[in-house]
Design brief:
about 190 residues; mainly alpha; 5 helices; 3 strands; about 70% helix
């Protein structure tokens, strides 16, 4: 093997390493976010189905990383590359792609069950986050799915937006309570005066 081939294999190994690191970090961050959302006391949460694709993609990436590492190792030692290496990699990548499809259904069903167990129900289709394919709003009060203020806040489905909804609803509840106290005081002053 020549120097150019070794350089390409080293670049491929570096590329797959970076992709695996980013994929693992994204998966861990997504799982942590989902756990905190489902375990929260927020009236509305957003669950993402994106990370359901990551385990299968990471498995395929591991096989591609292994292939690139094997090619580089053999090139540096000036050994011929085994034809079985490519076959194993192809099978691993196909299994990873299959896991992308199957795994996404299994993982999303898991999160849906966790949300339902926590007392949340999914917002009806075409109410919130209609522009997000991999995100779904869940709430403990279905009326929030149709609330115009909530629609203005929930645009991208981030944790910050669900926190803003909780703050907005708390402030709105306090305003309503203050208004009721004011009206009661007005009624008492009319009856007493």
């Amino acid at each position: 093997m020549n120097q150019q081939s070794i350089f390409k294999d080293a670049i491929a190994l570096l590329f797959f390493s970076i992709l695996m690191i980013v994929g693992i970090w994204t998966l861990l961050y997504s799982v942590q976010t989902q756990l905190s959302e489902v375990g929260s006391t927020k009236p509305l949460i957003v669950l993402s189905s994106f990370h359901g694709y990551l385990p299968g993609a990471l498995l395929a990436m591991v096989f591609m990383f292994g292939y690139a590492a094997n090619r580089l190792w053999r090139a540096l030692r000036r050994q011929p590359i085994s034809t079985d290496n490519g076959k194993i990699t192809a099978i691993g990548v196909l299994v990873g792609l299959g896991l992308v499809i199957v795994g996404s259904f299994v993982i999303n069903a898991y999160w849906d069950n966790k949300a339902e167990y926590a007392g949340f129900q999914p917002c009806p289709t075409l109410t919130l986050l209609t522009n997000r394919v991999t995100m779904q709003a869940w709430t403990k009060n279905e009326a929030l799915c149709f609330d115009n203020d909530v629609r203005r806040i929930i645009v991208r489905g981030t944790v910050d937006e669900t926190a803003q909804v909780a703050q907005h609803l708390s402030a709105r509840g306090k305003q309503r309570q203050a208004r009721q106290q004011f009206l009661q005081q007005e009624a008492q002053s009319r009856n007493g005066g």
